[in-house]
Amino acid sequence: MSRPSTFPRWKRVSLALALGCCLWGREVHADDTSHAAFRSCLSGTCFDPCDSAANIVRTYGPCACQRRGALMQWSYGTSFTGGPNLDEPLVTDRPDFTEASSTVGRGVAQIEMGYTYIHDNDGTTTTDSHSYPETLLRYGVWADWLEFRIAWNYGHQSSELDDIVGSEDLYLGFKIGLTPQEGILPETALIPQMVVPTGADEMTADRVLPGLNWLYGWDLCETISTAGSTQFNSAVDEETNDVYTEWAQSWTIGYSLTDKLGGYTEWYALFPHGAETMLPEHYLNGGFTYLISDNIQWDIRIGGGLNDAADDLFVGSGVSVRFY
Q1: What are the sequence ranges of the domains in the chain?
Q2: Which CATH architecture has domain 109-323?
Q3: Cα 80 to Cα 74: distance, rounded to the nearest angstrom
Q4: Tens of pLDDT along 246-281?
Q5: What is the pTM of this model?
């Protein structure tokens, strides 16, 4: 049986909190690092790392006067950059398939919406689909590295066989900004996500379908960036109504043509696992974005399938607006 501690409980809690304060991104004086840090933590305070007159040594993470832009970082030290920057133009998840690896920032709301026309002819049936308003609301909660996401859409699909119209299932998720880019190591984010059965009878999956999306991106220079995503989601086989796992992989290259005009080229693919009738689909698409202001962006895209199972053509346009 262990001997009970004679150190008062409130002092133990205060010491733990103070040590956590110092270790979680604070700084200590260089003249007597260990003793200064210990004294600082015992007093329940940490040295002010923003005091330029002090002789200080950083330990880990951002300055106390800086908000943490990402949950973690690749290396030990103080190169804690990245995260949202409201002094720069907005970064959107549309129009490409690959989501951005950055978050919007705490207290920031961003609405992204658009319209897509899809055409497909599988040799026997021609199908035309309209997707709108493709609304995605992103809102930063609790910290700069965390955003809540909710999306809603309405679809209209017509063919020689039937005509289906109605709202689709609601999408819910959180984007977690994991790491900033450090050299060849990418900026990364993770999105736990799901759709819930709220759609019209002809559109709903009639069950909750969870998924996970891992995002990674690099700024190669001031005008060129590249990014990818790897994700898996539960999906429903259209013929058998059975649930299977759909893997998705994408890769995109973005480029700045002017201060306001940008473009991208992207490949992405869907790989069904455990489905009886669904087949892999490969797509190639590209588009342009135009900054109306730092907080408003217009986009346009066009793409098509690379194999028989994929849709033949899709084209769309949209707008994104940031509020803070």
Answers
A1: 9-58, 109-323
A2: Beta Barrel (2.40)
A3: 9
A4: 999 999 999 999 999 999 999 999 999 999 999 999
A5: 0.81
